[in-house]
Amino acid sequence: MGFLDIIFPVNCLECGKETKYLCDNCLAKVGNARLFCLECHKAAIDGATHAGCKKKYSIDFAISAWGYSGVVRKAILKLKYNFAYKIADELAWGFTKKLVSEVSVLPKDALLLPIPLYKSRENWRGFNQSEKMGEIVADKFGWEYNLNVLIRSKKTKPQAELSGRQRAVNLQGVFSLSRDSLKFSSYKLPLVLFDDVLTTGSTLREACKVLKRNGAKTVWGLTIAA
Ligand SMILES: [Zn+2]
Ligand SMILES: [Zn+2]
Protein backbone atom coordinates (compact mmCIF):
# COMPACT_ATOMS: atom_id res chain seq x y z
CA MET A 1 0.00 0.00 0.00
CA GLY A 2 1.38 3.40 -0.95
CA PHE A 3 1.17 6.66 0.97
CA LEU A 4 -1.76 7.90 -1.15
CA ASP A 5 -3.77 4.74 -0.57
CA ILE A 6 -3.70 5.40 3.14
CA ILE A 7 -4.99 8.95 2.75
CA PHE A 8 -7.55 8.07 0.05
CA PRO A 9 -9.02 4.63 0.61
CA VAL A 10 -9.95 2.85 -2.63
CA ASN A 11 -13.57 1.71 -3.00
CA CYS A 12 -15.14 -0.54 -5.58
CA LEU A 13 -16.98 1.56 -8.20
CA GLU A 14 -19.92 -0.86 -8.05
CA CYS A 15 -20.42 -2.10 -4.48
CA GLY A 16 -18.34 0.41 -2.52
CA LYS A 17 -16.29 -2.21 -0.70
CA GLU A 18 -12.73 -1.16 0.08
CA THR A 19 -9.33 -2.04 -1.44
CA LYS A 20 -10.01 -2.11 -5.20
CA TYR A 21 -11.87 -0.02 -7.81
CA LEU A 22 -13.01 -3.22 -9.52
CA CYS A 23 -13.43 -5.81 -6.77
CA ASP A 24 -13.14 -9.49 -7.71
CA ASN A 25 -16.74 -10.13 -6.77
CA CYS A 26 -18.24 -7.40 -8.97
CA LEU A 27 -15.84 -8.19 -11.81
CA ALA A 28 -16.89 -11.84 -11.78
CA LYS A 29 -20.53 -10.73 -12.14
CA VAL A 30 -19.92 -8.97 -15.47
CA GLY A 31 -20.91 -11.26 -18.31
CA ASN A 32 -18.64 -12.20 -21.19
CA ALA A 33 -18.72 -10.16 -24.37
CA ARG A 34 -20.61 -11.60 -27.28
CA LEU A 35 -17.95 -12.24 -29.93
CA PHE A 36 -19.17 -11.47 -33.42
CA CYS A 37 -17.96 -11.15 -36.99
CA LEU A 38 -17.49 -7.45 -37.77
CA GLU A 39 -18.74 -7.96 -41.33
CA CYS A 40 -22.10 -9.72 -40.74
CA HIS A 41 -22.54 -9.17 -36.97
CA LYS A 42 -23.41 -12.84 -36.36
CA ALA A 43 -21.69 -14.85 -33.63
CA ALA A 44 -18.10 -15.85 -34.39
CA ILE A 45 -15.95 -18.42 -32.64
CA ASP A 46 -12.85 -16.79 -31.11
CA GLY A 47 -14.00 -13.52 -32.70
CA ALA A 48 -12.67 -14.66 -36.07
CA THR A 49 -14.22 -12.97 -39.10
CA HIS A 50 -16.08 -15.67 -41.05
CA ALA A 51 -14.10 -16.93 -44.02
CA GLY A 52 -17.11 -16.33 -46.25
CA CYS A 53 -17.51 -12.72 -45.03
CA LYS A 54 -13.88 -11.69 -45.38
CA LYS A 55 -13.06 -9.00 -47.91
CA LYS A 56 -9.66 -7.78 -48.96
CA TYR A 57 -9.32 -5.26 -46.13
CA SER A 58 -11.41 -6.97 -43.43
CA ILE A 59 -10.19 -7.33 -39.88
CA ASP A 60 -9.13 -10.90 -38.99
CA PHE A 61 -10.23 -11.11 -35.35
CA ALA A 62 -12.28 -8.92 -33.04
CA ILE A 63 -12.00 -9.84 -29.38
CA SER A 64 -13.62 -8.28 -26.32
CA ALA A 65 -13.52 -9.48 -22.76
CA TRP A 66 -16.72 -8.30 -21.10
CA GLY A 67 -20.20 -7.14 -21.88
CA TYR A 68 -20.48 -3.36 -21.43
CA SER A 69 -22.15 -3.50 -18.03
CA GLY A 70 -21.65 -3.48 -14.27
CA VAL A 71 -18.36 -2.42 -12.76
CA VAL A 72 -16.57 -2.58 -16.15
CA ARG A 73 -18.97 -0.02 -17.62
CA LYS A 74 -18.60 2.22 -14.55
CA ALA A 75 -14.80 2.08 -14.83
CA ILE A 76 -14.80 2.87 -18.57
CA LEU A 77 -17.18 5.82 -18.10
CA LYS A 78 -15.07 7.14 -15.25
CA LEU A 79 -11.93 6.98 -17.40
CA LYS A 80 -13.61 8.79 -20.29
CA TYR A 81 -13.95 11.93 -18.27
CA ASN A 82 -11.23 11.67 -15.69
CA PHE A 83 -8.17 9.58 -16.24
CA ALA A 84 -7.17 7.70 -13.10
CA TYR A 85 -4.11 5.57 -13.53
CA LYS A 86 -5.07 3.07 -10.84
CA ILE A 87 -8.51 2.38 -12.35
CA ALA A 88 -6.94 1.98 -15.81
CA ASP A 89 -4.32 -0.36 -14.43
CA GLU A 90 -6.86 -2.55 -12.60
CA LEU A 91 -9.08 -2.68 -15.68
CA ALA A 92 -6.21 -3.44 -18.08
CA TRP A 93 -4.79 -6.06 -15.72
CA GLY A 94 -8.15 -7.79 -15.26
CA PHE A 95 -8.61 -7.64 -19.03
CA THR A 96 -5.31 -9.34 -19.88
CA LYS A 97 -5.85 -11.96 -17.18
CA LYS A 98 -9.27 -12.80 -18.58
CA LEU A 99 -7.99 -12.99 -22.14
CA VAL A 100 -5.11 -15.24 -21.18
CA SER A 101 -7.40 -17.67 -19.38
CA GLU A 102 -10.30 -17.66 -21.88
CA VAL A 103 -9.04 -16.81 -25.35
CA SER A 104 -6.89 -19.34 -27.13
CA VAL A 105 -5.90 -17.49 -30.27
CA LEU A 106 -4.05 -14.32 -29.19
CA PRO A 107 -0.85 -13.43 -31.06
CA LYS A 108 2.39 -14.05 -29.19
CA ASP A 109 4.20 -11.09 -30.65
CA ALA A 110 2.35 -8.07 -31.92
CA LEU A 111 2.38 -4.32 -32.31
CA LEU A 112 -0.48 -2.62 -30.48
CA LEU A 113 -1.92 0.58 -31.95
CA PRO A 114 -4.47 2.48 -29.89
CA ILE A 115 -7.39 4.03 -31.77
CA PRO A 116 -6.60 7.75 -31.75
CA LEU A 117 -8.92 10.58 -30.83
CA TYR A 118 -9.12 13.73 -32.92
CA LYS A 119 -6.56 16.12 -31.46
CA SER A 120 -7.80 19.66 -31.18
CA ARG A 121 -8.37 22.35 -28.66
CA GLU A 122 -11.90 21.07 -28.30
CA ASN A 123 -10.48 17.82 -27.02
CA TRP A 124 -10.52 19.44 -23.63
CA ARG A 125 -9.91 16.31 -21.67
CA GLY A 126 -6.37 16.20 -23.01
CA PHE A 127 -5.97 12.45 -22.74
CA ASN A 128 -7.03 9.33 -24.55
CA GLN A 129 -8.00 6.47 -22.29
CA SER A 130 -7.40 3.95 -25.08
CA GLU A 131 -3.83 5.17 -25.53
CA LYS A 132 -3.08 4.81 -21.86
CA MET A 133 -4.80 1.46 -21.32
CA GLY A 134 -3.36 0.16 -24.58
CA GLU A 135 0.11 0.88 -23.28
CA ILE A 136 -0.59 -1.10 -20.12
CA VAL A 137 -2.07 -4.03 -22.09
CA ALA A 138 0.86 -4.12 -24.54
CA ASP A 139 3.27 -4.07 -21.64
CA LYS A 140 1.53 -6.94 -19.86
CA PHE A 141 1.48 -9.08 -23.04
CA GLY A 142 5.06 -8.15 -23.97
CA TRP A 143 3.89 -6.58 -27.26
CA GLU A 144 5.31 -3.55 -28.96
CA TYR A 145 3.34 -0.33 -28.71
CA ASN A 146 3.18 2.74 -30.91
CA LEU A 147 0.71 5.59 -30.56
CA ASN A 148 2.14 7.53 -33.53
CA VAL A 149 1.25 5.23 -36.42
CA LEU A 150 -2.46 5.95 -36.78
CA ILE A 151 -3.73 9.50 -37.03
CA ARG A 152 -7.30 10.67 -36.81
CA SER A 153 -7.33 13.33 -39.46
CA LYS A 154 -10.94 14.44 -39.47
CA LYS A 155 -13.33 15.69 -36.88
CA THR A 156 -16.44 13.51 -36.65
CA LYS A 157 -19.79 13.58 -34.91
CA PRO A 158 -19.91 11.52 -31.71
CA GLN A 159 -20.69 7.94 -32.78
CA ALA A 160 -23.20 7.53 -29.96
CA GLU A 161 -25.59 9.97 -31.68
CA LEU A 162 -25.72 7.98 -34.92
CA SER A 163 -27.30 4.81 -36.27
CA GLY A 164 -25.25 1.86 -37.51
CA ARG A 165 -25.12 2.97 -41.14
CA GLN A 166 -24.53 6.61 -40.28
CA ARG A 167 -21.64 5.54 -38.07
CA ALA A 168 -19.85 3.86 -40.96
CA VAL A 169 -20.35 6.91 -43.22
CA ASN A 170 -19.28 9.27 -40.43
CA LEU A 171 -15.92 7.47 -40.15
CA GLN A 172 -15.05 7.16 -43.83
CA GLY A 173 -11.55 8.48 -44.46
CA VAL A 174 -11.10 9.49 -40.85
CA PHE A 175 -7.88 7.58 -40.22
CA SER A 176 -4.55 7.89 -41.95
CA LEU A 177 -0.99 6.77 -41.30
CA SER A 178 1.74 9.04 -40.05
CA ARG A 179 5.06 9.39 -41.87
CA ASP A 180 6.51 7.22 -39.13
CA SER A 181 4.77 4.26 -40.62
CA LEU A 182 6.21 4.26 -44.13
CA LYS A 183 8.26 1.25 -43.16
CA PHE A 184 4.96 -0.42 -42.47
CA SER A 185 4.73 -2.79 -45.43
CA SER A 186 7.85 -4.49 -44.17
CA TYR A 187 6.26 -4.98 -40.79
CA LYS A 188 5.76 -8.69 -40.21
CA LEU A 189 4.13 -8.53 -36.78
CA PRO A 190 0.37 -8.90 -36.39
CA LEU A 191 -1.16 -5.51 -35.62
CA VAL A 192 -3.58 -5.10 -32.74
CA LEU A 193 -6.00 -2.18 -32.82
CA PHE A 194 -7.03 -1.33 -29.29
CA ASP A 195 -10.10 0.57 -28.10
CA ASP A 196 -12.16 0.64 -24.93
CA VAL A 197 -15.64 -0.22 -26.21
CA LEU A 198 -16.86 -2.01 -29.34
CA THR A 199 -20.36 -1.19 -30.57
CA THR A 200 -21.01 -1.68 -34.29
CA GLY A 201 -17.33 -2.16 -35.15
CA SER A 202 -17.23 0.77 -37.63
CA THR A 203 -14.19 2.30 -35.96
CA LEU A 204 -12.14 -0.91 -36.01
CA ARG A 205 -13.20 -1.70 -39.57
CA GLU A 206 -12.22 1.74 -40.83
CA ALA A 207 -8.84 1.74 -39.04
CA CYS A 208 -8.13 -1.79 -40.28
CA LYS A 209 -8.84 -0.77 -43.87
CA VAL A 210 -6.12 1.90 -43.68
CA LEU A 211 -3.60 -0.54 -42.23
CA LYS A 212 -4.28 -3.27 -44.76
CA ARG A 213 -4.26 -0.88 -47.71
CA ASN A 214 -0.75 -0.03 -46.60
CA GLY A 215 0.50 -3.57 -46.43
CA ALA A 216 -0.53 -4.91 -43.02
CA LYS A 217 -1.03 -8.68 -43.12
CA THR A 218 -2.98 -9.62 -40.00
CA VAL A 219 -5.03 -7.16 -37.99
CA TRP A 220 -6.77 -7.81 -34.68
CA GLY A 221 -9.27 -5.65 -32.90
CA LEU A 222 -9.08 -5.79 -29.14
CA THR A 223 -11.60 -4.01 -26.93
CA ILE A 224 -12.22 -4.13 -23.20
CA ALA A 225 -15.99 -4.41 -23.54
CA ALA A 226 -18.62 -4.97 -26.19
ZN1 LIG B 1 -17.48 -4.54 -5.86
ZN1 LIG C 1 -19.62 -13.01 -40.88
TrEMBL record:
SUPFAM superfamilies to which the protein is assigned, alphabetical: PRTase-like
Q: Which domain of life does the protein's organism represent?
A: Bacteria
- Give the protein family: Belongs to the ComF/GntX family.
Q: What is this protein called?
A: Phosphoribosyltransferase
- Source species, please? Candidatus Woesebacteria bacterium GW2011_GWA1_39_21
